[in-house]
Amino acid sequence: MSSVCLYNGCTPWQGLLLTASLLTCWHLSATAHVTIESVPPQVVEGENVLFLVHNLPDDVLNLAWAKGVNTMHLGIGTYLQSENLSVPGTESTGRESVYSNGSLLLRNVTKKDTGFYTLRVFNSRVSIVSTTTIYLHVHTVFWTCGSHASSSKPTIESVPPCVAEGGSALLRVRNPPENIVSFVWFKWMTALKELEVARYIIDRKSTLWGPAYSGRETLYSDGSLLLHGVTQKDVGWYTLQIVRTDTKREEAKVQLHVDKPVAQPFVQITDTTIAGHRSAIFTCISPDTDVSIRWIFNNQSLNHLERMTLSPTKCGLMIAPVRREDAGEYQCEVSNQVSLKTSHPVSWP
């Protein structure tokens, strides 16, 4: 293992492992957090939905799913890794399946399935190493003249879907009901007074700030909430409660995603010999995770040839054998949902 000096310090880096022309590389990174993706993102009654789990840690003993946030006694199912066995929980309806990778499949969903779902990951010491929550909203579909439209329940759209640190995010209200008295925003998943960010009172055309107000929010008359200068502390769920003149209340929730702009990567070149032929290995070194990588040759996107091998994450490029026509300038481009950076060019040979 070698070390690569990055910025003002040195960070251990597991570099290219080259065995029998197999190329593998790693980013400079910390351990990734467990995340859950809803597939499909929106689901209507009668359909199936998969909660697809990403970035599970290595040392996993059990994976436990429950309905709710802090209610693990409402267990849906547990997967026992040591026994390769899925065990249904007390709240199982028979429509759920928990898989070995932690993912949860819900079949033939109904409106009653709407709500929060929590995955807890236990390690071999039976300690909880991760708790991740996802919210499912099951839509009702009305069929009209051969086409369908979702129900007119209020929803929240995050614009943009993922915002860079320091940027602004608009939580835009869609399909608000009629006869509204007020809009009330909460920072988290429950409508508790201490979590209130702000409320807008329609007839007074006035805004009242709550205990969770940070000074960086703007609340508009249509109920939409603008967050300025977002930070990682702003990540998470926001709940909008709409109070109607008939005293009924409707709620909608949205999850805010904040990402850091990527740092500029750099390219390292290593010359080696494989099977008697000269080869070149290019490594795109970046401190960022969950990024896309693109290789550039002489200011154009690199055309992949049979002599070229990319690592699974594309951070490593091997040309074997390397030829005279491969001479030129190489760069790598690193991007995430909010930013893009390109390395300085390096020349080969």
From TrEMBL:
Source species, domain of life: Eukaryota
Family matches, as InterPro entries: CEA_cell_adhesion, Ig-like_dom, Ig-like_dom_sf, Ig-like_fold, Ig_sub, Ig_sub2, Ig_V-set, Immunoglobulin_dom
Gene3D superfamilies: Immunoglobulins
Database matches in PROSITE patterns: IG_LIKE (PS50835)
A cellular-component GO term for this protein: cell surface
Keywords in alphabetical order: Glycoprotein, Immunoglobulin domain, Signal
Bilayer-spanning residue ranges: none
Protein's UniProt keywords contain Signal: yes
GO molecular function: protein tyrosine kinase binding
Keyword flag Signal: yes
Biological process terms in GO annotation: regulation of immune system process; signal transduction
SUPFAM superfamilies the UniProt entry points to: Immunoglobulin (SSF48726)
Signal peptide residues on this chain, from the entry's feature table: 1-31
Record-annotated Ig-like domain positions: 265-347
Family the entry assigns: Belongs to the immunoglobulin superfamily. CEA family.
Name assigned to this protein: Carcinoembryonic antigen-related cell adhesion molecule 3
Species, as recorded: Cricetulus griseus (Chinese hamster)
